[in-house]
What does this fold into?
Amino acid sequence: MIREIAPSDKLRKWFSHDPAKWNEFKERYWEELDKKQDIVSKLAKECKHKKVTLLYSTKETRYNNAVALKEYLEKKR
It folds into this structure.
């Protein structure tokens, strides 16, 4: 498990799974991820070699950090 890849508490609380904030959440989260390239690279490498499960802790299935992280990783491929 790579907990450091999760969005910061401040960002997560600001977002609060509000669909109106989704695009800005992704931008801010991706900026955080850009600063964690060592962790992102490790996860990307794992994704190439085996099935990876991205976790999130909300009932919201469309607007959550796992969806944003998946999109980020796909764009960086």
The helical segments are 9-15, 22-34, 37-49, 65-76. Residues 3-76 form one domain. The chain has four helices and no strands.
